[in-house]
Description:
The chain is 0% helix and 39% strand. By secondary structure, the chain is mostly beta strands.
Amino acid sequence: MGFALDAGATVLCAHAGQAQAASPNPRVKAGGQLITTQPVPHTVSGCPFVAGTTPMPCVTATWTTASTRVRASGQPVLTTDSQAVCTPNGTPVTIVLSQLRVKAV
């Protein structure tokens, strides 16, 4: 069980690039911010990752886990326990900060 992930949360790729919700749920708020749901990826900006001499920055983060019981507009709500994989290099994301009022299972 974790806190519902809001659109203002600080989410970083493994290389410290900033991930933002591409389209937060427009109908539900937690802590004054719109929440995010699983099928919507996060876009990553500012990722400095380089493989050898080839730039290979994280572009999107696709969520692989979300709440099993709480839904918003029929979609599973992302929580601070959710996990994601970045494209194109397959690295994880870290949720650094989110709202601390609404929990989801």
